[in-house]
UniProtKB/TrEMBL annotation:
Name of the protein described by the UniProt record: Cupin
Compositional bias segments (type: Basic and acidic residues): 107-116
InterPro entries the UniProt entry points to: RmlC-like_jellyroll, RmlC_Cupin_sf
Species name: Aureimonas ureilytica
Span list, region Disordered: 95-123
Highest rank taxon of the organism: Bacteria
Coiled-coil blocks: none
Amino acid sequence: MSDEKPSVPYWHLYTDEDGISRQKRCALTRFELKSMQPPAAPQWQGEKHHDGMTVMVTVQPVGWEGTWHENPAPQWIIPLSGRWYVESMDGTRVEMGPGEISFGEDQGTRERDGRKGHMSGTVGDEPAVLMVVQFDTAREETTPCRFG
């Protein structure tokens, strides 16, 4: 087993100080090598977040495209199958599939040129199945890559 801490990439959709949504490539890096429940062998465990959570699975049909909107709450979005995209107000479009994750935290954006929050939809010829883990509380200020 390697003693080198892992680095897990994710996209962070956030609101900047001007109220514009942006996306930044980040990495989860805060890992500790320990057992989940002794005597199980140690594994790299990421930082725990203690907050009420809502967990759900959504299925976006082929060709689905949402309108411009903000995430209803700060939330991790984990594609289980299919592909989807997120476009932020700054024009950045990111496509993701299984194994790629995003943290949506674009609350508090200001409408600009008919855009507010982000646009998202399916990519390709199969539905996008997404697991969504919503935080029950939002932060006053968002900082890009705050989980790094």
